[in-house]
Amino acid sequence: MLKPDSLRAALNGSVKYVKQNPDCLHIFIDKGVIYSTLAPSLSFEYQYTLNLIVTSYADDANLLIVPILHWLRTHQPDIMANPDKRGDGFTFEADFLNNAARDISIDLKLTERVIVSEDNGKLNVRHVDEPAPPPSDLSSYEIWMEGRKVAAWAA
Questions:
Q1: What is the 3 state secondary structure string of the chain?
Q2: 118: number of CA atoms within 13 Å, CB side?
Q3: Which of 51, 102, 125, 144 could be cross-linked to 28 through a Cys-Cys bond (beta carbons 3.0 to 4.6 Å apart)?
């Protein structure tokens, strides 16, 4: 599984509190399933809930949530793109320790596809990236058909 380490690295690089206190970040894998069929290859998919806990967090929760959303946009975009997954793909709980600090527990329903191919008796295993996220930095759009602009609007 690659996504737990990828998310840890993303948070270490983007959340000041986590960067200064790396031992505050705990990652667990819950409810893991290996989804495989009787197809000719041994390809499969990891399906699991990643439980991320940040302890004694006293900063604004947005400083933690926005980097996770940014990471999800690339590494698990279906949580945002699929209406069926928006409701429970990214959930959280908080335990208020005192007036300033809280433990925050975040659950992310993640998948990782693994392709297993056979080549001359050798099994080659490789993880498959998620589809590219839609562009988000465009300020306007144009539609052209047969060499002429038929629509335009601002983002």
A1: CCHHHHHHHHHHHHCHHHHHCHHHEEEEEEEEEEECCCCCCCCEEEEEEEEEEEEEECCCCHHHHHHHHHHHHHHCCHHHHCHHHHCCCEEEEEEECCCCCEEEEEEEEEEEEEEEEEECCEEEEEEECCCCCCCCCCCEEEEEECCEEEEEEEC
A2: 6
A3: 51
Given this model, what pLDDT does residue 74 score? 87
pTM value is: 0.81
CA angle 53, 109, 64 (to 5 degrees): 40
- Report pLDDT digits (tens) over 29-74: 999 999 999 888 999 999 999 999 999 999 888 889 988 988 998 8
Q: What is the pLDDT of residues 74-93, one digit of tens each?
A: 899 999 888 888 889 999 99
* Phi, psi (rounded to 5 degrees) for 15: -110, 110
Separation of alpha carbons 80 and 28, rounded Å: 22
